[in-house]
């Protein structure tokens, strides 16, 4: 029978960022829908309220994007390891992870991903979050800032081809992020239990089976390929067990 | 008695003769070069001899004959409005009688009397009667220049900014009369702006006839956009113009302009409800016209294909009324993208449900 241990997965700054971002994005989706379809959607009351809510939520998401960037890049200095796929990820990792999601998961095999310190995403997550966090979110924030300041930033809008180009980009990128949200939430349910990955994003700690690492060591000694590990993410610099 | 009658007759004859002697030169003078009375009414050449000459008259008295010539005021003639100009004008030192607009524009006058402008500005405070243009012949930017004569741009921006998001943008992209008169129907008034010699990103101003003529190399300026010369602008022609890098300094702008113009200026509460414009939907966005300047200072209005401003990207890249002129195709694409995001969770979740026993067995 395997022992359980607690690992500290999500530090407080990341949890704050995540949930502020989550609330902000849901608010942006609702207010954005009313702004685009005012004749059909009136959830937030007046159009002016919808615009103000959208602007405030957008600014909060933008500020917290900077918070996330500063924390990972300058405080923890782990942004590159977490979000940028390495050579192994590109050559084999992404395909291996894709095969796991498409086939191995259904036959009951564990994930091929083996978490490393400050490398909590599997290769597919890295690729997806690289696009989301470094392309889509900055693009939607930048186009949003332009749309909020059409007169003062007129020159930048003209350089981009006009306000319709900016608005179209903003709308389509926002739709793409909305689409990603479904996948993001669904994948979060693929832990040992459906809520296993939600808990660490709330409390910071995740309960994992201790035998995983033992198994890994045994497998490694016997020269077996490094597969068969469920994703274990941890921060070894933190104590393994929280204070009661 | 006879002597008395003769004396009266003599005095009467002398009076008539004296009156005749005084009147003949005056009548002769009225047909002279200085005035356009009587048979010359409508031609106005006599008045314009001086009033079109910048060296003889200045300011509001200086009239552009080309601009004045096409107005209704020119057809009825100068004396119709400026009655009783003395024959000795301008050497007699008397002031030329001012026009009484109410004589003809009775309805406008009654309408104006009900507006918040009444008593604060006369007709000539906004209109130059010697350069009459209907709103359809003007660009929206020029309509606002009339208002800007009294209403300071910065003060107005600050005042509207108290409740209106992006007040600067609204004041720049809308004629004041769109919100401050009660017109029910609207059209999009398109016009060309140029950045003069400041490059593509300079300050835009309404392009003059001369600039556009130069841009076309002397051809009809309509051919800048209307490439097939059918006096009708299609969406394809708009896209072609907007993507043409030869016209870097020219951009097409548009304003939501009232179809029927009222002189009853007022502050309307329903305009403070943003959905009046932003929720007006594609119905209002159907009609648009392009206003192009003419050599005589007037504007020519050319019809544009229905729904041009609803084009996704390049029909009118600088005109976007959030919520109203969204492109439907783009909305469907957005919906498809969002639904695409559900494919993986739904399919994977379904297979996950079917194969749940595999994972349970492994765990055991």
Let me know the average pLDDT of chain B.
Answer: 81
Number of strands of chain B: 5
Overall geometry of chain A: globular
Based on Cα principal axes, name the global outline of chain B.
Answer: elongated
Oligomer: heterodimer
Strand content of chain A: under 5%
Per CATH, the architecture of chain A is Up-down Bundle
Overall domain count of chain B: 3
Uncertain residue ranges of chain A: 212-244
* Total number of strands of chain A: 2
Considering DSSP H and I runs of 4 or more, what fraction of the residues of chain A is helical?
55-70%
Low-confidence residue ranges of chain B: 16-41
Strand content of chain B: 5-15%
Number of helical runs of chain B?
17
What features would you describe in this structure?
Chain A contains nine helices and two strands. Chain A has one domain (4-221): Up-down Bundle (Fumarate Reductase Cytochrome B subunit), CATH 1.20.950. Chain A is mainly α and 244 residues long. The longest helix of chain B has 29 residues, at 2-30. In chain B, strands 1, 2, 3, 4 and 5 form a five-stranded mixed sheet that branches. Residues 16-41 of chain B have low confidence and may be disordered. In chain B, a hairpin with a 5-residue loop joins β4 (288-293) and β5. Chain B is α+β, with helices and mostly antiparallel strands. Chain B has three domains: 31-103, no CATH class; 135-326, no CATH class; 331-363. Chain B has helices at residues 2-30, 45-51, 65-69, 72-76, 78-81, 106-113, 123-126, 140-148, 153-161, 167-173, 176-180, 209-215, 235-243, 275-278, 281-284, 328-354, 356-363, and strands at 186-194, 205-206, 250-258, 288-293, 299-304. Chain B starts with a helix and ends with a helix. Chains A and B meet through α2, α4, α6 and α7 of A and α10, α16 and α17 of B.
